[in-house]
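User: Hi! I'm a student and our assignment asks us to look at how structure tokens line up with a sequence. Could you show me two examples?

Assistant: Happy to help. In each example below, the sequence comes first and the structure tokens follow. Example one:
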Amino acid sequence: MGTFNVEVYEMVRQIPKGRVASYGQIARLVGRPRNARFVGFALHANPEPGVTPCHRVVFKDGSLAPGFAFGGEDEQRHLLQAEGVEFLPDGRVDMERFCWEA
């Protein structure tokens, strides 16, 4: 596993329950601001889904990943709602209220 993936997993494990971060935000926090897409690739290959809470990473507009690797978009939504994350009427996470301020 590459260093980038390890850094992504370590950062994502810091997102508290009830908060979300965007792919771009994680990329910036690990020092690779132009690599949001690669954050997604890393999370898709998450070797420890119960330990690294990849469900807490969403698109910058609060949209969920249609290809969420661990059960699909509905499962990601269910996991976030179970943590108290609320959604806007159009189905996006309310980023103003629930975005993690790292």
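Example two works the same way, sequence first and then tokens:
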Amino acid sequence: MRKIVLFITVMFITHLSYSQVFVQDVNINDLDIEYVQLVGVNTSMFGVKIKVFVDYGQEAKLMKADAIKNATGKTMKFNSMIHALNFMNDNGWKYTNYTETIVSSKLRYVYLLENKDKL
């Protein structure tokens, strides 16, 4: 019986820490939102260097860092947009749609994601 209670407790705690994505020190999984945009901008003229951020409808703040952080508070650095998409999928967000545009001669990748808890 103790093993069952311990197992259920561990699973519950794991689930709580599992779905946490922080943007500007806000856990977006705790917000009452259905959709976010995962936006990646190619910041390199030679090769591919991607800057990734999440737009959940927040007010843009010039001096505030928009880094994406995981449940432990570690700032995430992504090797590609698929790396970022897999991170978001693992943390409770489902891919819905994709577009790409060119803004100021920089390629911008935009993935629309839906909160899995709201499905």
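Here is something you could point out in your write-up. Confidence is low (pLDDT under 50) at residues 10-17.
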